[in-house]
Design brief:
Elements lengths: L8 H29 L6 H29 L5 H14 L2 H25 L2 H8 L1 H13 L7 H14 L8 H26 L3 H22 L7 H29 L1 H7 L3 H13 L5 H18 L3 H8 L5
């Protein structure tokens, strides 16, 4: 009798790191949403400012990693050798770095603007996270694992059920912003996997963060100086640290363990991680729709991570006896 194969230690480690990254991501997104409440005339500014701080934090992180690598190598010329290695890694992933930079310029501002116009953070998240779910679906089709498509679809249903708790405004432009953020998220996940494959996640994220800064600054210039307020700047620093720095580093490591398809479905667990953050920062109290959506999403994540579609197909074919 065939047995269901349980996830290995590396898979479980990838899930744990990914969920932690999603927790940091949603905390930063919540700080952006709080900043948008103070910035009614130009909603892109808080997110853009967060992207700028995120680029600076990622650069600091890469510099720290560089210094630790040089220190651990007690050979002469270690700094030059490490610099050449990082440069070669960066040159091998030029296109993913550019894609990450473009998505970084637009993701946070679009997410903040969509939240402000739609009026429901859960609804915006449900739309935005269709991006990585689309990546998971495409991966299943590409590998001819057609039954695995059920997991991202089920996760999307769970996101939709969770969004039913809040009343959202029928704002077409707001939903368009959320859909554009979903595309940015999908690009981000695919590009990060390329960085992981080439061992260039640290330098790649740092360079992408630096390239994001000039583009994000355009949002601020276009909005004038209304965003120049102590509270918005403080929230933007937290957004940059959590969403644009810590979260990408953890998510990159998770994608390295799981692959972009499994991480795409795992990312739908972000609203679950958002429950304590939403309660503490935004005063959002979960209800029955949220509970039902959480249950559906958990089933989707477990089924996709353990690849339960494979034994189910064999069972239907009568191969499990």
């Amino acid at each position: 009798m065939s047995k269901v194969r349980l996830p290995g230690h590396s898979t479980l480690r990838g899930v744990a790191i990914g969920l932690l990254g999603l927790l940091f991501c949603v905390a930063g997104d919540a700080f952006s949403a709080l900043g948008a409440e103070d910035e009614k005339q130009f909603p892109f500014a808080p997110g853009a400012l967060g992207a700028i701080f995120g680029g600076l934090f990622l650069t600091g992180y890469a510099t720290l990693r560089f210094g630790l690598a040089v220190r651990s190598s007690r050979r002469n010329g270690a700094a030059a050798e490490e610099f050449r290695r990082m440069r070669a890694s960066a040159e091998s992933v030029r296109w993913p770095i550019r894609c990450l930079a473009v998505s970084g310029i637009f993701y946070l501002p679009l997410l903040v603007a969509a939240t402000q116009r739609v009026g429901s953070f859960a609804t915006v998240i449900a739309v935005a996270f269709c991006g990585p779910l689309g990546v998971a679906m495409w991966g299943a089709f590409r590998k001819a694992r057609y039954t695995a498509v059920a997991w991202p679809v089920l996760a999307a249903v769970g996101l939709w059920v969770m969004s039913l708790q809040e009343e959202a405004h029928a704002d077409p432009l707001g939903y368009a912003f959320a859909a554009a953020a979903a595309v940015c998220f999908a690009v981000n996940v695919s590009a990060v996997e390329k960085l992981e494959d080439r061992g260039a996640e640290t330098v790649g994220l740092a360079l992408a963060g630096l390239l994001t800064i000039p583009g994000a600054a355009v949002w601020l210039i276009a909005g004038g100086l209304e965003w120049f307020q102590p509270r918005i700047i403080m929230l933007a620093v937290l957004t940059g640290l959590f969403t644009a720095c810590v979260a990408p580093v953890l998510e990159a490591r998770s994608i390295g363990y799981l692959g972009k398809e499994k991480f795409g479905v795992l990312s739908s667990g972000e609203p679950i991680m958002s429950l304590p953050v939403g309660l503490l920062l935004l005063g959002e109290v979960p209800g029955w729709f949220v509970a039902a959506g959480v249950l559906i999403i958990v089933v989707a994540i477990v089924g996709n991570t353990a690849e339960l579609d494979r034994p189910l197909v064999r069972l239907l074919r009568g191969e499990l006896r």
